[in-house]
């Protein structure tokens, strides 16, 4: 089973929402923005993981931390995700969950599954 994770990345931490294919939340919490933090989220998912996060100032570091540990990485344009989610008040939880849901929908559409 594939897990879809959305990360809202900050300088010292990131907020992660990991969803099962069914849409059920597997993990939703803050982790330190470090190798240990990325190890922690991946240990909690325990499955194949596809990850999406916004291409912000630190995207290269996050990409390098994840590239050999996850099945797929998608970078999201911050302005496009803002327009798609249509959230007036952006929180870490909403942002990470929106990214995970968008990634899951994209996967479902491309593989003929129903969301």
TrEMBL record:
Residues 5-104 form the Transposase IS110-like N-terminal domain. InterPro entries: Transp_IS110-like_N, Transpos_IS110. GO terms for biological process: DNA transposition. Pfam families: DEDD_Tnp_IS110 (PF01548). GO terms for molecular function: DNA binding; transposase activity. It comes from the Archaea. This is Transposase IS110-like N-terminal domain-containing protein. The lineage of its organism: Archaea, Methanobacteriati, Methanobacteriota, candidate division MSBL1.
